[in-house]
Design brief:
It is built from 23 helices and no strands. By secondary structure, the chain is mainly α.
């Protein structure tokens, strides 16, 4: 099977897993958002940085190291499993002991019990790292979808039921725990692993030799990815954090999840051609343009319809999150570019540079936070956007160096894709000016219209990237449609 065919198949099943899960979670979230308060969501958001840090240590880069292996042995599986299990239990112990200090930091006593119960998810996630890595290495994304989607459904049903029964914030705790537990159990059922009761030092040093750099870079990235929640939770009321968290969740659905799909599929495929610089550059360029083709219109539409999206989908109590969402989407517009640039550094086995870049970029983020906080919540958000654009330049510099793919070339390729969204946005701005959105049905109509205008406009003007998208989609299109589109 060709790389392009493998990529098409992989994208389909990663999309089913990621967006199937996210769409289900979005539906669940909409229901929970109407039943619970912004403060409930804010309380959970206060804790996420601690669980995210624990998860970074548990993965410890060993998962990515396994994916790079040509053949994963039982010694590798056993070593990674026992190492991660030990870390999982250790971090749960730290969270349990540290819960009172976390509660004191935020001045919210209820966080003690919330931390100790939610912390169990750390162990559930840790025991299935081997399965997740091996499935990714083998491009078995269908199995991951079979494990993750049912877990989301079960967790959603339970959490919604609890919310109806006035369990409040504990509904969200149950959802988080059940997703972790059910998905891990399903992964073990679908992909049993022969785990020996032994720790192999050779396997550990070989895998950790690559993975420890990713551990530290991933840890730094995780801390700073959640640092805004920590700061907002500390200096502002819980409801403000709730607004920020849900605006970020919507932005991530349209940007980070698309990037996550493309990264998950492209990483093992690009590794296969990493010895051929010309082919690697060509495939990387395709990945960059393909992700831009999807993310640009999504971000622009969300910015345009931010307020009606929040008001008519989540309810009036979330209207205050509108400026949060619009500002965050300006950051999400180009997030995929520097994220995919980092992917290339892993492909060419330069995890040392990823760590170096993380230090440089986080200094940049720290400066933005210090300055932005002086201007309140919106100054903090504006600083986040500015720092993300600086990070973009830093990331692309190394790709330009190693792939002979200059920053100007990358900008040119990306701008060509951005231009494709202009007709759609022009039509939407004109229509919404004369006919503003005043109901959920109008919002749905405008969203459908945006998709139609974007697709039709690009089919009429067949650029190189449009032809690439059609070629990727061809295996899943009916023969009549392929004949009409000439693919």
């Amino acid at each position: 099977m060709s790389l392009k065919a493998e990529a098409s198949k992989g994208v389909l099943w990663v999309a089913v897993e990621r967006f199937g899960q996210q769409i289900l979670q979005a539906v669940i979230f909409i229901i929970l958002a109407r039943l619970l308060t912004p403060e409930d969501f804010g309380l959970i958001a206060m804790l996420m940085i601690f669980f995210a840090i624990a998860q970074s240590f548990i993965d410890s880069g060993m998962g990515q190291a396994l994916i790079r292996e040509k053949e994963i042995t039982d010694q590798d599986r056993s070593t990674v499993f026992w190492f991660n299990l030990l870390l999982s239990v250790a971090f749960y112990g730290l969270l349990y002991i540290g819960a009172p200090w976390i509660a004191e930091f935020y001045s919210r006593p209820e966080l003690v019990d919330l931390t100790r119960v939610m912390g169990l998810a750390v162990i559930f996630f840790g025991v299935a790292i081997v399965q997740r890595s091996e499935m990714t290495q083998q491009l078995e994304f269908k199995k991951q979808a079979y494990a993750q989607v049912p877990a989301v459904v079960i967790a959603g049903i339970v959490s919604i039921t609890m919310a109806y029964m006035d369990f409040g914030v504990w509904s969200l705790v149950a959802q988080y725990l059940l997703v972790a537990a059910c998905s891990s159990i399903a992964l073990w059922i679908l992909q049993p692993a022969n785990i020996r009761f032994y720790f192999y030092r050779d396997s550990f040093f070989r895998l950790f030799g690559f993975g420890y750099k990713l551990l530290f870079s991933g840890l730094i990235d995780t801390i700073f990815k959640h640092i805004y929640k920590l700061i907002i939770g500390k200096f502002f009321v819980a409801s403000t954090l709730g607004f920020y968290t849900q605006a970020k969740k919507i932005q991530d659905l349209a940007s980070r999840n698309v990037v996550g799909i493309i990264q998950k599929v492209s990483y093992p495929l690009l590794v296969k051609v990493s010895d051929d610089e010309e082919r690697l550059k060509k495939n990387y360029r395709n990945v960059l343009q393909l992700s831009s083709f999807v993310i640009f219109p999504l971000m622009l539409v969300i910015i345009l319809f931010a307020e009606p999206l929040l008001v008519y989908v989540l309810g009036e109590k979330w209207a205050s999150a509108t400026p949060f969402l619009m500002i965050l989407c300006l950051s999400g517009l180009l997030y995929h570019i520097h994220a995919i640039n980092l992917n290339i550094l892993m492909v060419i086995n330069r995890s040392d540079l990823i760590l170096k870049l993380e230090f440089i970029k986080k200094i940049n983020v720290s400066i933005a936070i210090i300055i932005g906080l002086k201007f309140g919540i919106y100054g903090l958000l504006a600083g986040q956007v500015v720092s993300s654009y600086v990070a973009l330049f830093i990331n692309t510099w190394y790709t330009a160096r190693f792939l002979d793919y200059s920053i100007s070339e990358q900008c040119s390729d990306v701008l060509k894709v951005l231009v494709l969204s202009i007709p759609m946005i022009t039509v939407l701005i004109i229509l919404s000016y004369f006919y503003p959105v005043h109901s959920l049905f109008m919002l749905i109509g405008y969203l459908l219209l945006s998709g139609i205008v974007y697709i039709v406009g690009n089919l009429l003007y067949r650029t190189e990237i449009v032809n690439l998208v059609l070629e990727m989609a061809a295996p899943f299109l009916p023969k009549k449609i392929k004949t009409i589109l000439d693919v």
